[in-house]
Amino acid sequence: LKKVFDKVKDVKARWEYGLWNIFSDEPITDQFFERLEEHLIAGDVGVGLSESLVKGLREFAISAKISRASDLRAHFASMLKDMLSQAQGSGSSLKFSGPVGLVLLIGVNGSGKTTTAAKLARLLKEEGRNVVLAAADTFRAAAIDQLKVWGKRAGVRVIAQEPGGDSAAVVYDAIQSIKAVGGIVIADTAGRLHTKHNLMEELSKIYRVALKDLSPDDICPILVVDAITGQNALAQAKAFNGAMPLKGLILTKFDHTAKGGTILAMTSELNVPVLYVGVGEGMEDLEPFSCDSFVEDLLG
Ligand code: GDP
Q1: Residue 251 neighbours by CB under 8 Å, 6+ apart
Q2: What end-to-end distance do the CA atoms of the chain give, in Å?
Q3: Contact 68, 25 (CB under 8 A)
Q4: Most ligand 1 atoms within 8 A of CB, residue of 115, 119, 158 to mutate
């Protein structure tokens, strides 16, 4: 995140949302806790979670008889790390028990699914995995074309049908194409929100069809969220969680925002790990998420 903060050109935004200047050497007052809560809310942590974090910190300060804000920093860091690591579970790597794993990238249009599919394909290919991309956003012809271009650039095969085709069939074909040798299918899916119900049905069908070949352990639905979306991201996550059980999050466009709060809010609410963060439009701009360095960078 530090790198990302450094990329953020607006210095004011860095100071506004980072928590560097909060844990200063001054004596603890009510204003300190109010300021911390304001910063957390402004950074998209969410009102409820911000209140409960500040309440917990206040109780600790009283019980441990701490009088300087700077002495609370380490405890606050460990509170955040504990919260994140509960959701992080086995960490940020994609593990599958069978020979074929399916990564389903879901999320609203524009969140970065197609780009992330290519970035992830490149990353996993570099790790030596056999990867195939499935163009399951059959609703938008442009998404199919875009994935083909990205796939070519990454040197990864793309399984696609004509626009308007059956997205579950595309994913099915991709699984069949890799079954003999084993590997990972990364599926880009549709994200139109205006026909929300049909979209959720379409996603459920992809999941059901994949279950014909794969065990639930080998299917990894990941929600791709634009980090700028803020609190609205939670509502999106809940809607998509109804279509299939989310196993992870990827937050994109971290190069455009200094707010890290969405990560705290979503992991605490959904209890699923953040696997990667997108930090640019290029093929290489995807980084594995580490909760320790995230918290350290956030607190400065
Ligand atoms: P989709 O509709 O969910 O498939 O979204 P796309 O993959 O088409 O991405 C939408 C836009 O967001 C494109 O212009 C991407 O280049 C851009 N984008 C995706 N990820 C990132 C990121 O991490 N950082 C930045 N700056 N832009 C991104």
Answers
A1: 225, 226, 227, 262, 263, 274, 277, 278
A2: 10
A3: yes
A4: 115
Q: Identify the CA nearest to 36 among candidates 99, 5, 80, 96.
A: 80
pTM (whole model) above 0.80: yes
- Reported confidence tier of residue 260, pLDDT bands at 50, 70, 90: confident
How far is Cα 52 from Cα 291, in angstroms, rounded to an integer? 20
Both structure tokens of 246? 């989310």
φ, ψ (nearest 5 deg) of residue 159: -95, 125
- For residue 34, how far is its CA from the centre of ligand 1 (angstroms)? 36
pLDDT at 12: 44
φ, ψ of residue 138 to 5 degrees: the values are -85, -5
ipTM computed for the complex: 0.99
Closest Cα to residue 50, out of 81, 80, 86?
80
- Rounded distance from Cα 109 to ligand 1 centre (Å): 9
For 151, 223, 274, the CA distances from 115, given in Å and listed in that order, are: 10, 13, 17
Q: What angle do CA 117, 122, 123 make, to 5 degrees?
A: 100
Q: Mean pLDDT throughout 198-218?
A: 94
pLDDT band at 218 (very low <50, low <70, confident <90, very high): very high
Q: Of the given ranges (5-9, 81-85, 226-230, 275-279), which has the lowest mean pLDDT? A: 5-9
**Dist CA 92 CA 274 (whole Å):** 7
User: C-alpha angle 160/162/165, rounded to 5°?
Assistant: 90
Question: 232 or 277, which is more confident?
Answer: 277
